[in-house]
Each structure stands twice: as structure tokens, then as C-alpha cells.
Amino acid sequence: MEVLRPIMETNTKHFQCDFQWDIKILTNAGVGAEHSALEERTFLWMSRPCGTWCLRENRAFLRGSREYETWRFYGEQTRDKIFAYVVEVSGVREGKVIGNLYELDYQKHFRHVKEKAVPAGQEKLIYERGSRLRKAGLPFSVREDEKMGKLICAVPVPDDPDKLSFLLCQERQNRKRMRSGDIKEHLHRMKKG
């Protein structure tokens, strides 16, 4: 978080409180890192003038998901200056989230996501005592279910899970080919404009 905070403070002038949600999301991913797949710990993070977003990469590549629509929106609907990164969380050490950070060209990346995203034809509704699949996009009640209890969340499910896995694997391979940088130099350039 010590790396993302100065980026946010440089670019995000309003709604900096969004960053508290990002810290919580990334910390939760880091705490359970040894028990979860990398794709569950990889996020797209953006700083914009009016807030931040921290979205799971695997859901951003699911057409129709909230994460896909959010990532796409700022490329199509605004002219905001956006700093975007991939954050791969590997754990928490001494109370700090650790991992890898990759800078993105947001305009190119949102178009890439739009082109490559896999359809999400179903949603998994997760309840206190079970789950069920249903067609994506249909309205549903958040009232308590007699058998399964309270609704916890709705998660998009890809039509072709193998295609999504292959796509995410390609994304990781592309990041491995990126040149390592110096974060202090990056922050210095950013502050200079």
C-alpha cells in the first residue's frame, strides 16, 4: 500500500476515502494468499481524479460483470487522467501487503479488455448455506431464501471457464516480459507531470 498511496495522492483529488476500500480488498487477498490461486489475488487498480477502483482481474475479463463495466466505463465515458496498474498480491509481511505492481497504459488496456473479455452467461448466487446458478442479468430478490438463508453475493460465471483461464495465463506471461522499474523514479516522474 505504501507504493499505491503516493500514486493515489498525486492523482486523486476527491474521494480519497475510496482508497480505504482498496486497502481492505488487497489486505484480505494477502492474508489468505497461501491458500488461494494467483488469479484470486490479481487486481486491476486505478487512480482517477475523483476516486479509485480495485477490481479483480479475472472478473474484469468477464463481459457483463460489474468489474468489466467499471473498467470499460472510464475509457469510453470520461476524459479523466487515469493511472492504472495490475497488482499481484503475494502476502502480508509485518502488516504490509506485498506483491508485484505493473504499470498499464489505461487507454490501451481498457480496449484490450473490451476486445478479449469472455461472456458471463450465468451468475452464482452465494448464500449462507449454499449456492445456485442462474442466468446472468435477470433480476433477483435479496430477501432471505427459506433453505439457503441470507444472500452473501452474486459472482459472474464464464460461459467458457477454460477460455478465461487461458486468457489470464496469457496476461501473466505478458507481465513477466515487462521490464523491471524503479518505483521511486516512477513516483518522481509522476509528481513532475
Topology:
Blueprint: H1 4-11, H2 18-31, E1 42-48, E2 51-56, H3 57-60, E3 62-63, H4 66-77, E4 83-93, E5 96-104, H5 106-116, E6 118-119, E7 122-127, E8 130-135, E9 151-157, H6 161-176, H7 183-192
Parallel strand pairs: 3-6
Antiparallel strand pairs: 1-2, 1-4, 4-5, 7-8, 7-9
3D structure, described in words:
This protein has 193 residues and is an alpha+beta fold. 39% of the residues lie in helices and 29% in strands. The strands form three sheets. A four-stranded antiparallel sheet has the order 2-1-4-5. Strands 8-7-9 form a three-stranded antiparallel sheet, with no helix packed on it. Helix 4 crosses helix 5. It is globular, with a radius of gyration of 18 Å. The mean pLDDT is 91.
Quick structural summary:
The protein is an alpha+beta fold. The protein has helices at 4-11, 18-31, 57-60, 66-77, 106-116, 161-176, 183-192, and strands at 42-48, 51-56, 62-63, 83-93, 96-104, 118-119, 122-127, 130-135, 151-157.
Helical fraction: 25-40%
What's the main sheet like? 4 strands, antiparallel
Mean pLDDT: 91
Question: End-to-end span in angstroms?
Answer: 22 Å
Name the helix and strand elements from N-terminus to C-terminus, one letter apiece.
HHEEHEHEEHEEEEHH
Shape: globular
Quantity of strands, as a count? 9
Q: Determine the structural class based on helices, strands and strand pairing.
A: alpha+beta
- Low-pLDDT regions: none
The Rg value, from CA coordinates, equals: 18 Å
